[in-house]
Write a structure and sequence with these properties.
Blueprint lengths: L12 E4 L2 E4 H5 L3 E6 L6 H12 L1 H6 L2 E7 L3 H15 L7 E3 L4 H5 L14 E6 L5 E7 L7 H16 L2 E2 L10 E3 L5 H7 L5 E4 L2 E4 L5
Parallel strand pairs: 3-4, 4-5
Antiparallel strand pairs: 1-2, 3-6, 6-7, 8-9, 9-11, 10-11
Bound molecules: benzoic acid (BEZ).
The site of benzoic acid has 8 residues, from helix 2.
Length: 211
């Protein structure tokens, strides 16, 4: 059975480019993004890992670590990272799991034989400080992911964990948000003393509360 939102992210021990890790210990008290790529020494993956390295500070601002995984060996990962630095202009600054026995890939259902072979597809798991899975996505091998979107979703989850709001289509940090429909207007007055705009009884727009 595949992993679902709200499930505890399975723990594991793995070899990585930064040594052996226990996943839950490595996550610590913060958030984590675990993402798979199909194979080392491939073009789209090279761009994705370079972009992720460039976004390290952005992930850190959200108290979030990043870790990559593929079924290639740690030796292959180490040989490949030089290419990423050379072509993408940023050294890889996060661990890459060498999942040669496919334990992580199978546990997280990252192997999709329909996608051509037994390498991992482009999966992403956002895991919160309680080790719960809060977002998953799976892209085909041919489509590089948008890592700004992953940051955007983390912003949304972290905001909506703390306030009775949801974020609308294409929302970005700092933009107006929606008051959750479960809150009555009476209750909303306590939570949003500066008010809101009612477009429909179920669609009430207010300023982002933590700004
Ligand atoms: C790539 O990363 O470029 C890639 C990997 C596997 C299949 C297709 C493309």
């Amino acid at each position: 059975m595949s992993l679902r939102l709200g499930d505890t992210a399975p723990d594991f021990e793995a070899e990585t480019t930064e040594g052996t890790i226990n996943f839950h210990d490595w996550i610590g008290d913060g958030w984590a993004v675990l993402f798979s790529h199909p194979a080392d020494f491939t073009p789209v993956c090279t761009t994705e890992l370079g972009e992720t390295a460039k976004l390290k500070e952005q992930f850190a601002k959200r108290n979030c670590k990043v870790i990559a995984v593929s079924v290639d060996s740690v030796e292959d990962h180490k040989a490949w990272v030089g290419d990423i630095d050379e072509t993408q202009g940023c050294a890889v600054n996060f661990p890459i799991i060498g999942d040669t026995d496919r334990h992580v890939s199978e546990t997280y259902d990252m192997l999709h034989p329909g996608e051509g072979d037994t390498s991992t597809v482009r999966s992403v798991f956002v895991i919160d400080a309680n080790k719960k899975i809060r977002m998953t996505l799976t892209y085909p091998k041919s489509a590089g992911r948008n890592f700004d979107e992953i940051l955007r979703v983390i912003d949304s989850i972290q905001l909506t964990d703390g306030y009775k709001v949801a974020t609308p289509v294409n929302w970005k940090d700092g933009e107006d948000v929606i008051i959750v429909p479960s809150l009555s207007d009476e209750e909303a007055k306590e939570h949003f003393p500066d008010g809101w705009k009612t477009l429909k009884p179920y669609l009430r727009v207010t300023k982002q509360p933590n700004r």
